[in-house]
Amino acid sequence: MGTSTRRSRRLMALAAVAALTTGLLAGCSKDSDDSSSNDGGGNGKGKTTLTIGTFGVFGYKQAGLYDEYMKLHPDISIKENVTTRTDVYWPKVLTRLQAGSGTDDIQAIEVGNVTEAVQTQGSKFVDLGKDVDKSQWLDWKNAQATTKDGKLIGLGTDVGPMAICYRKDLFKKAGLETDRTKLATQWKGDWAKYVDVGKEYMKKAPKGTKFVDSASSVYNAALGGGTERYYDKDGNVIWDKSDGVKKAWNVAMSVATSNMSAKLKQFDPTWDQGYAKGTFATVACPAWMIGYIEQKSGASGKGNWDVAAAPTASNWGGSFLGVPTAGKHQKEAIALAKWLTAPEQQAKVFAKQASFPSTPSAYSTLKPAADTTAYFSNAPITQIFADSAKTIPVQYFGVKDQPINTAITDVGILQVEQKGKSPTQGWDAAKNEVKDVLGQ
After folding, report:
1. What is the DSSP annotation of 188-240?
2. Alpha-carbon gap, residue 424 to 276, rounded angstroms
3. Which of 129, 217, 311, 348 has the fewest Cβ atoms nearer than 10 Å?
4. pTM > 0.90
5. For position 348, what pLDDT does the model report?
6. Whole-angstrom distance, CA of residue 387 vs CA of residue 274
7. Could you give the CA distance from residue 114 to residue 93 in angstroms, rounded to a whole number?
8. Which residues pair with 220 in a beta bridge?
9. What is the pLDDT of residue 3?
10. How far from the centroid of its chain's Cα atoms is residue 25's Cα?
């Protein structure tokens, strides 16, 4: 998650959850905030031990990559230090970076924190752009981890390209189109058209069902497809003037003030129950959410869920691997970071837990698990997410990007959706909360 995003950015051991993004996981996770260590299988005796600090579940151990690397490099032992939640992980990393000691040889960086790392900690990371072919990664992914003077402080892991996951059985009962291609055409180019489909759904909605899980999910999806968020490229706060925020807010308000939302908070137990009971017909789903839906919906959802292209290309989630300059084994750490984020390894992680690669050359080789493909009505999942990933615009994240987003979704939008406040009252509530976040 993102949340927003492996993210406690976010979620169940993707292997366990079968597919959450590297990103969303930890942030939304409800697990313990304690750190744990795992070595990939080596005992470290007489070897160079490389430590890698991660949050949530990146999938490297689960996909057997640590063991594979150690077999290829018998002189290397790998130890992974895992913190469940990003909001616990990242402050500790910042403290160690600023102290110039105590960092891992490789530190994972979530997309919501990468701008802070770029703007305030750039000198504390090795310039990895000198050691890799940057064309392997999506241009917008590289841009997120590049300093003003051109230093690449992190190599991209996963991304969270967006689609719309929908219950075609509920659509059929509501008398709507069920073909994924035709549906995508109906709402192509504008999230407001997606809302229009929701209005039609609610006219004949099966009893006890709503069109969408929450207004906040629509907000995040729409925001992820714009060129402006909360900061401009120079790091100035523009959230209340941002065209992207205004458009996303307006579409979210059209949901929040209607009868089409189930009014659920994502990753809360009630949201999980909504999947199990089939109480909402659509959800904006990044690639990593595929496994989550499969798990939470259970056997009754198999063959009823389908996937269509989202109204606009959008991203939610994603992470990076950086090498701190304080590390004792920089040369070896750079080599490992390059290998873990190479297209071949990203494809292996996708096969294990559906974390979508940030390396386009891997897309033609990606193969979802057979049971996942069947679960989602044989939708061309890889193609849908790949097409989205290739056209996502460059967005600029700021130091307080995540808390600003939380203020808008968990305060502003919820005021309207769950407490019956007007959109103006919701915006004012969000504005006051953002002022607190920014110390204004």
Report:
1. TT-HHHHHHHHHHHHHSPPTT-EEES-HHHHHHHHHTTSS-SSB-TTS-B-TT
2. 34
3. 129
4. no
5. 93
6. 29
7. 12
8. none
9. 37
10. 8
